[in-house]
Structures are given as C-alpha cells and as structure tokens.
Design a protein that fits this description.
Elements: E1 2-11, H1 19-36, E2 46-51, E3 54-63, E4 69-77, H2 78-81, H3 90-98, E5 110-114, E6 117-126, H4 131-144, E7 152-155, E8 161-164, E9 168-175, E10 178-179, E11 183-184, E12 187-188, E13 192-194, E14 204-206, H5 213-221, H6 227-242, E15 246-247, H7 251-258, E16 265-270, H8 280-291, E17 294-297, E18 303-311, H9 319-343, H10 348-351, E19 359-361, E20 365-366, H11 367-385, H12 389-398, H13 406-410, H14 417-425, H15 430-438, H16 453-472, H17 486-499, H18 506-515, H19 527-544, H20 549-555, H21 566-577, H22 582-597, H23 614-635, H24 639-646, H25 650-659, H26 667-684
Antiparallel strand pairs: 1-3, 1-9, 2-3, 4-6, 5-6, 7-8, 9-10, 11-12, 13-14, 15-17, 16-18, 17-18, 19-20
Helix pairs in contact: 1-4, 6-7, 8-9, 11-12, 11-16, 12-15, 12-16, 14-15, 15-16, 16-17, 16-18, 17-19, 18-19, 20-21, 21-24, 22-25, 22-26, 23-24, 23-25, 23-26
C-alpha cells in the first residue's frame, strides 16, 4: 500500500545558521535514499521541516514494499561453462551450486555476447524489500551525509556514546498511521514527539497519522514546523507591527530568527532618543548582529527609537519580555555611542601615520605604502578623466584612515561608512567625505556605483591597485579560489567603465598602476594577464545581459581597450544580425578576413585603373558611395545606422566573389583586389567584427 511517510528527529537546539541546510539535506537524503531503493512513485513529493529542535520530512505515496525485480547475473564464459559437446562442465556445476541453483537445467541459462566472448547468464526474480529495511538504510545514509558544522559527542541513558550535531531525544517514523520500527542514534522509532518547550505542558504529543504531522504540531504543540511558513509569518507580523514605518529585515536575519523560534511572536520595544545622535548604521548593525532585532525607520529612511523583536513565547503580558530586551540592548547602544564620541576626538588625518603599523601584505608593504600608491593613481585617473585632481588625491589619502577607529575595530562592516561621518566632522568637503564610503563600491553584484567623480576615481584606483598588486606577486585567482576577491574587483571596474560610460584605455590605467609598484621585490608586471582577465569577465557580464556568444565575440576584438560604448555596439550588432542581409555579409566578411590573414605583402590603396572586371568596379563604386554614410553614422555614435548601411552592399559583395578571381596571377591585379577587400573589411568592422556572426 502507498501512504505518506513521516520521519522526525527531535533534538536539543540546533545551530540556527546551519538549520536551513540541515533541514534540506535531511529531507533530500531520506527522499533520495528511498527513491534509489524504489519505494517512491513518480508523483511522490517530499516536504522538509526544520525547527530549532527538530529535523523532519514527509513524503507522499511511499510503498510499504518495493516492487519485485529481475536481476540478470553473469554465470561463466561459454568456453569455461560448456565442453565441446555443449554439456555442462564441473566449473559450471560448482558455480551454479554457489548461486543456489544446483538443480537448474542448463537450458534455462541465457547465452549472450559479453564483450569479445560469449557468456552464460541467469535472470532471477528478487522479491521486494519491506519499507523498514529500505528506510533504515536511507535514514542512516542521510544522517551520515548531513552538513554538520561540528559533531557533538554525548552519552545515551544506557551509557552508549553517540555523535550527532546535537543530542537527539526522540525519533518518529510513521507510514500512514503505522509506526515503522527502525532505530537511529540509539533511539527506537515511535509516533510520539514533543511540542513547544514553554507553551505546552511538556507531555508527549502523539502523531496519529503522517499526514497530520504539521497540523498536530501547530494546533496542539504550538510549533510551526515548516521553516518557510514561520519566516513568512514573521515577515507579516513585522510589517503589521511597523505600521507606517519601514522594517529593516535583511533576508539573512529573517532566516536566522526563523531558525531560533518555533512559535514566533513579534513585540515592540524602545530605546532612549539620545542614542539617535550616533550614526544610525552603527545602531542598526549592533541591533541586527548582536541582538537579532529588527530596526525601524521612517519613510525617509531615518532610524526610529523603537524596534521589533521576535520572541519564542506568546503571552498576554509581554512586559517582562519587552523590558528584558530593552535592558539588553541599552549597553550595546551605549558602547556604540562611546566609540563614536571617542573617535571624533582625533581627526582622520591625524591617524594616517598609524597606517605604517598596519600590514597590507608582506610582499606589498603596509597600508600606508598602499595608500600612497592609491593616492598617486587616483590623481592620475582624475587628471585623465578631467576630474578634480586635488579632491581625488585628498579622498584617496583619507579613504583608509577609519580602519584605525574604535568603531570600525568593533564593527569592521562599517569601514568606509564611518570614514564619511568622521570626515564630515573634520570639516572635509562632502565629496571627499563621501569617497570614504564610495571607494568600496560596488561591493557586490547589483550594488550602487559611486555617485561622485571623486568617488569614482578613487574606487577605480583602489580596485586597479588591488588587481595589479596582488596579481603581480603571483596570487591571481585559480579555479574556485580567489582569496583577494580579484574577480569582484574586476567586475566592479568593468561596471563603472560601462555604466558610467568612462572613455578611458584599460591598458593605460593598468600601465599607470603597474608603474607604482616599481622597485618592489618579487613583483612581475601583470598588465597583459590582468587585461585578458578583465576582458574575460566582460564576456560574462554581457552574456548575462542576454547577448549571444557570437554577438559578444563580435565586439570583444583582440585590440579592444575602451568599454564605454560596448553596450551600444552590441545593441547595434544584435539589430544587424536580425537583418536578412547579415548572414551573407557576415560570411563574406569571414572570407575576407581569412584571405587577408594569408597575405604577406603590404596592402596599399585601390587604383581605379586596375579595376578590370565589372563586379569589382561595381563593388568599388558601392564602397565609395557608402563610406561617407558609415563614417557619418559612426561619428554620431549611431552604430545601428552604421551597420544597417552595410546591408545595401550584400548583392555587390556576392557578385564580386562570384565573378572575380582575387588571387589573380597578375601581381598588380591581385594586390589591387586585396586593397579593395581590405578597404571593405575595415569599413565593415568599425563597429564590430561581424565575421564572428557567421555560423
């Protein structure tokens, strides 16, 4: 019979940050184990449950007995099993006896080719196994493969030592309403679990049927077993309590809090208004990181003095819970206020000499040495881009000074943010102050880019310095390993160049950066490799934007060095590829490319007097007519129009290749035709190498 199966392991409190992975792995392990043993139907559905005190899974349509199977076994090669007369040999009789088939008629054996020789095979029917057998094996495998951060050893009441993520107390295994009498971690399976630790009387809770598990726990045990259901209840309760205010609820915090409670209840708490004088990022971070609280802001994003907590206890008189949490958060906020007031007593500039005591990398020197390189590079980039050089150099000089403050020492996540607050307190210009925060941007995929020119210049300088410096001492990314986040730095640079349309040479910036490492022992110029690495990252960015590999390769030509208009070029290539003429022109362009690659002589200008064939005269006239249109469109950065103009050349190009022998015996004719093709090739590929569009 097919019924729903339930397996639950009741434990002490599980590590909250690992609970989602543990729950998913436990459910997947049991499900996959039963599937491999043929206990599941095609329509079987597994549901994972995970709470701070339990891992569970329910699976629909689970068989009580697996189907019988036909097993084909190799007996012996024919050359060994049969004599010349086709009768069975002694080795065959011995083998059949060992297989429990001593009385088997040889005619029941199948004769089939096995590799290069013939062998005898026997097919027997094997009865299916009972669910207890299959589930026992699946459960043991699932437990052994759990992604447990650290095993705990503990003793069972009978004195046996067991290892698991946390001590386990009960095991439930139900197939429909029948207990599956298996064992795990010294526990005998039953149909009894426990409800909420505080909201029930602590008595055993019986699960009558596997399909009633979640409902019984919720209605009688005050436990919401499904992780996602708890999380969404918390989210809805937070939003309801917030009212007109905004709740700061990062998904990671929601998940962690969901892993801390079985019956979530949201309460409102308050702290003293005086703490709002501290930068709100400090208060928010300490509430989220240390206390797992949810901060509130008004519609403008300004922090409120009230915050929300998620409790595991529902009560009509929550004053003690609220008061306790308010008392706990107060010292944390007082510490943040103390750090802030102390840090303001010393300017960022006064802290700069202390960067000499902070090692950046043992091969690249201190943070002070790195800061000098970034200052020089930021100034050079600002000069190249027409930005304010003095602001860029000042912003770069102060950008790392907040690393030496007490606040950043306590909360490293606030580096840059605190630098902006302290720079403003010191009287620095707003653009210089913002640079402390913005030079880290973008910190991750989808993060905002620097909003100011100074922030952009310093952000580019900081990332180029890291890329070139770390690569130059041989610590480039390998496989999945990228300890210095060079991939992220490269993507950050590329996003700034493309999205801010910064018209600058990558090679030039890399060369400027490398020049700042002159004299450092063990440093090898990595400009060529870093440039190739960045172009490869660019491929990934463009493909994620929906461009095809051929379209991407058309614009990422070997000498590509400026990326400010690459998206516009790609849009034009995509539009050109949709034209009916594009296939023929791309193929012709590819043919021209191959011809020119094989040419060893210098190619000059086209001589009209050497154009003898009608097709080459017509093509020359067409190229001459179209070139001004292409040049005008290209100068106007209308790449789509430039490529679309080429479409009118299709018939003339096809006629040329059909009627003209390019590699003529006459050297003058040959070179003149090569010159015509070279002229056409250069015009066709101004926007992109359209030969890459050819299949």
């Amino acid at each position: 019979m097919n019924h729903t199966l339930l397996v639950e392991l009741l434990t002490e409190e599980l590590p909250p940050k690992a609970l989602i992975k543990l729950g998913a792995a436990f459910a997947a392990g049991v499900n996959n184990g039963l599937k491999a043993r043929d206990f599941l139907d095609e329509g079987s559905v597994a549901t994972a449950y995970a709470t701070p005190r339990r891992l569970a899974v329910s699976i629909t349509q689970v068989r009580s007995v697996s189907p019988d199977k036909s097993v084909r076994e190799k007996v012996l090669p024919v050359s060994v099993a049969l004599d010349a007369a086709g009768q069975g040999t002694a080795p065959l009789a011995k083998k059949l006896a060992a297989m429990g088939l001593a009385d088997l008629d040889i005619a029941a054996l199948e004769r089939a080719v096995d590799g290069k020789a013939e062998s005898l095979f026997y097919t027997r029917s094997v009865a299916g196994s009972a669910l207890i057998t299959g589930l026992q094996g699946a459960l043991e495998e699932a437990g052994a493969k759990l992604p447990i951060p650290k095993l705990m050893s503990y003793q069972r009441p009978d004195g046996t030592t067991v290892q698991f993520v946390r001590p386990a107390h009960k095991l439930v295994a139900l197939h429909g309403d029948a207990v599956v009498p298996l064992t795990l971690l010294g526990l005998q399976a039953g149909n009894v679990t426990l409800g909420h630790r505080f909201l029930t009387d602590g008595e055993d809770l019986s699960i009558a049927h596997a399909e009633q598990y979640a409902g019984t726990l919720e209605n009688e045990g005050k436990v919401i077993a499904h992780m996602d259901v708890r999380k969404e209840k918390i989210r809805a309760s937070l939003l309801a309590k917030a009212g007109a205010d905004q709740v700061l609820m990062p998904e990671a915090l929601l998940e962690e809090v969901s892993a801390l409670v079985e019956w979530p209840v949201v309460y409102e708490c308050h702290f003293e208004e005086e703490f709002l004088a501290v930068p709100q990022e400090c208060l928010i971070l300490t509430m989220q990181t240390n206390q797992k609280y949810f901060a509130l802001t008004d519609a403008a994003g300004k922090l409120r003095s009230r915050f929300l907590i998620v409790s595991n206890i529902a009560t009509d008189e929550p004053q003690h819970i609220i008061g306790g949490n308010e008392r706990v958060v107060r010292p944390r906020l007082s510490d943040a206020k103390f750090f802030f007031e102390q840090d303001k007593k010393k300017s960022l500039e006064a802290r700069l000499p202390l960067l000499e005591n902070v090692v950046y990398h043992n091969k690249l020197g201190t943070q002070a040495a790195r800061s000098k390189r970034v200052v020089a590079l930021a100034g050079a980039i600002a000069r190249e881009l027409g930005f304010d050089v003095a602001l860029a150099e000042r912003g770069a000089l102060l950008s790392k000074a907040d690393l030496l403050t007490d606040m950043v020492g306590e909360f490293p996540e606030l580096q840059g943010i605190m630098g902006t607050y302290y720079a403003r307190h010191d009287g620095e210009s707003d653009e210089v102050a913002l640079t402390a925060t913005e030079h880290y941007q973008p910190r991750f995929a989808g993060d905002a880019l620097p909003s100011t020119n100074t922030g952009t210049a310093v952000a580019l300088a900081d990332k180029f310095e890291t890329l070139v410096g770390i690569w130059g001492i041989g610590l480039q990314p390998t496989g999945e390993k990228d300890p210095f986040a060079l991939r992220r730095h490269a993507l950050g640079v590329l996003r700034m160049l493309v999205e801010k349309r910064i018209d600058v040479s990558i090679s030039q910036l890399l060369a400027l950066t490398a020049a700042n490492f002159t004299g450092i022992a063990g440093f090898t110029d990595p400009v060529k490799d870093v440039r190739a690495f960045m172009i490869d990252r660019m491929r990934g960015i463009l493909r994620e934007r929906g461009f095809s590999p051929n379209e991407v390769e058309a614009v990422l030509v070997d000498d590509l060095d400026r990326l400010h208009d690459i998206v516009e070029r790609l849009d034009a290539v995509k539009a050109f590829a949709a034209l009916p003429e594009s296939v023929s022109l791309a193929a012709a362009n590819k043919r021209i490319t191959n011809i020119l690659k094989k040419t060893e002589v210098a190619i000059g200008a086209v001589s009209e007097s050497l154009l003898h064939e009608e097709a080459e005269k017509t093509l020359y006239a067409a190229v001459t007519r179209v070139r001004p249109q292409v040049d005008a469109a290209f100068a106007a950065r209308d790449f789509a129009a430039a490529l679309k103009t080429l479409a009118q050349l299709r018939d003339d190009v096809d006629a040329f290749f059909n009627g003209v022998m390019v590699m003529a015996d006459d050297v003058e004719l040959r070179n003149n035709r090569l010159a015509l093709l070279s002229s056409l090739h250069a015009m066709m590929n101004r926007v992109a190498d359209i030969s890459k569009l050819a299949a």
